[in-house]
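Pipeline run #58 for the internal structure catalog. This entry was flagged by the ingest filter as a single-chain record with no existing model, so it goes straight to prediction. Upstream metadata was stripped on purpose; only the residue string is passed forward. Reviewer on rotation: M.T. Logging verbosity set to normal.
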Amino acid sequence: MDHKVTDNSAKKQYELLVDDKLARLEYIVAQNRIFLTHTEVPIGLEGRGIGSELIRQVLEDIQLKNMILVPLCPFVAGYIKKHPEWKALVLKGINIA
């Protein structure tokens, strides 16, 4: 996939534009922690791996920024469960079952 995620800090969301439709991942930042709160993939983009690509790129950005992740969104938590290499980003004490 050649689509690039952008951080729209004014709206507090990461965005991925595909076929003129916007997938987004909302967040809250407090100190050095980022809380990923809600993932939204428009109808028409579902089932194409867009949400997973969005999350992967967001996690890469969080890693680059050396932030601590608090995955409040169930879709993000599910992604991390399937890709345990990202668990190192998660706030200690949070169990992703």
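catalog note: The domain at 6-89 is CATH 3.40.630.30 (Aminopeptidase).
catalog note: DSSP finds two helices and five strands in the chain.
status: ready for reviewer M.T.
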